[in-house]
Design goal:
The protein is α/β, with parallel strands linked by helices. The protein contains eight helices and seven strands.
Length: 249
């Protein structure tokens, strides 16, 4: 009997991560969900029959322990992320560093844990969840944008290093997504003094997509599972943009 392939999804308890986990499970993968607390992922893990592992992606010791517990990985989805919007002049250095730690260093540390096994087996997929903010700047999102620009640079560099090893590394770059992170960003903007209503802020996000809508987590999950397939073995070091045409303008 052929053993099912194993996917690890960080930040796997909600939004994009949850949609990705469900889709991989439907496709017959063994799924490991990782998040900062087990409470974030235990419910979904029980629901779909996945393994739940606590991890702080910015802490090397925590990442080491988590991937030791998870075992060999065929597909890594670096989805753990955070965003706290604020003007540059009001961005605390600790918040700046936290963006880099979670959104960039976390993907680096997790990739380090799966790469040796992928290379030795001659096959693997690493998929980093970046953002259109990795290609352009958004006012009040400088720390987030800087971390995602860095993640795209890391993706491209690593892809070149492992191209002849049977491993591919790509980045998914969605526009505004209908997800808890987007709605959390709106709440944070209001908390910091934005006088618009949540509905008005959301409308400005929607208007940035020429299709006039938010991207869905299921769309992103479909793209990720395709990148994990043999049909996508020639796609490497790429930014796959899901934004309805925002960056095309």
């Amino acid at each position: 009997m052929v053993k099912a392939k194993h996917v690890v999804v960080t930040g796997g308890g909600r939004g994009i991560g949850a949609a990705v986990a469900r889709r991989f499970k439907t496709d017959g993968f063994r799924v490991t969900l990782m998040a900062r607390t087990r409470n974030e992922i235990e419910g979904l893990a029980d629901e779909i029959g996945a393994y739940a592992v606590r991890v702080d992606v910015g802490d090397p010791a925590s990442v080491e322990a988590a991937f030791m517990a998870a075992g060999p990985v065929d597909v890594l989805v670096n989805n753990a992320g955070m965003v706290r919007p604020s003007p540059v002049t009001k961005t605390d250095v600790r918040v700046w560093e936290e963006h880099l730690k979670v959104n960039l260093t976390g993907s680096f540390l997790c990739a380090l844990k799966v790469l040796p096994g992928m290379i030795s087996r001659g096959r693997g997929r690493i998929i980093n969840i970046a953002s259109t903010a990795g290609s352009r700047g958004y006012s009040n999102f400088a720390a987030y944008s800087a971390s995602k620009h860095g993640l795209i640079g890391f993706t491209k560099s690593l892809a070149g290093e492992v191209a002849d090893k049977g491993v591919t590394v790509n980045a998914i770059c969605p526009g505004w997504v209908d997800s808890p992170m987007t709605h959390g960003a709106i709440a944070a903007m209001i908390e910091r003094g934005d006088e618009r209503s949540p509905e008005d802020i959301l409308a400005t996000f929607v208007a940035q997509n020429p299709q006039g809508r938010l991207i869905t987590a299921d769309e992103i999950a479909e793209t990720i599972t395709f990148l994990s397939s043999e049909s996508a073995r020639s796609i490497n070091g790429q930014m796959l943009v899901l934004d309805g045409g925002e960056l095309a303008g």
